[in-house]
Amino acid sequence: MKKRSLLFLSQVKISMSSNTIQKLREYFEHFPGIGPRQAQRFVYWLLNQEPDFVKNLGELLLALRSDTKQCNQCFRFFTSSECRFCNNINRDKSRILVVEKDTDMENIEKAGVYNSLYFVLGDIIPFGQTIPKNIRLKELFGRIEHDSQKELKEIILAFSATAEGDNTCRYLEKILDPLVKKYSIKINRFGRGISTGAELEYLDKDTLKNALENRK
Ligand SMILES: [Zn+2]
């Protein structure tokens, strides 16, 4: 009887732990660019790390949302006291560069080729599909309307050179057209020096500089 109970307990433990492995794998599969096999590798890799490493990682994950703020003007995430772009008096306020995500903006910033403002749209619009719910169209409209009454003179659309990126540009040009006309501002796309399929977050400094200089 005792033996059978022990066997039962160990089976429960195995089933619980495999459930945890499975659940964590499913979470990793939601990460951008991560498939089931990579997700599984992450889980087993974590199981082979020192307990402190996993504990610190868990604590950082918990702190990520509570320690991070989101700018109510450009919608980027940051951990300092205020947005270093929107609240920076040394930045030129006559241009807003619209990007899909924070990593695109970080890459442009790292290249040091741009000294004006940003807006993080949060997503792109796939061709022939419904507009994603998390895309910040209303917020972009509000920001352009607000800034156009101040120093804004130009909107620059900077998306990856993909069908979705082009579709997003076309859509934004259409919906922003009334504001562009009302306030006599310009709307331009990143120059087409970018090769087809190139993701903005991976472009090097020279390519970004050319794309910015050749915008139209
Ligand atoms: Zn900001």
Automatic annotation (TrEMBL):
Sequence ranges assigned to domain Toprim in this UniProt record: 94-195
Any one GO molecular-function label of the UniProt entry: DNA binding
GO biological process per UniProt: DNA recombination; DNA repair
Superkingdom, taxonomy of origin: Bacteria
InterPro entries: DNA_Rcmb_RecR, Rcmb_RecR, TOPRIM_dom
Keyword Zinc among record annotations: yes
This protein's UniProt keywords: DNA damage, DNA recombination, DNA repair, Metal-binding, Zinc, Zinc-finger
Zinc finger motifs (C4-type), residue ranges: 71-86
PANTHER family: RECOMBINATION PROTEIN RECR (PTHR30446)
Function statement: May play a role in DNA repair. It seems to be involved in an RecBC-independent recombinational process of DNA repair. It may act with RecF and RecO.
Family named by the database record: Belongs to the RecR family.
Protein name in UniProt: Recombination protein RecR
Species assigned in the record: Candidatus Tagabacteria bacterium CG03_land_8_20_14_0_80_41_22
Gene: recR
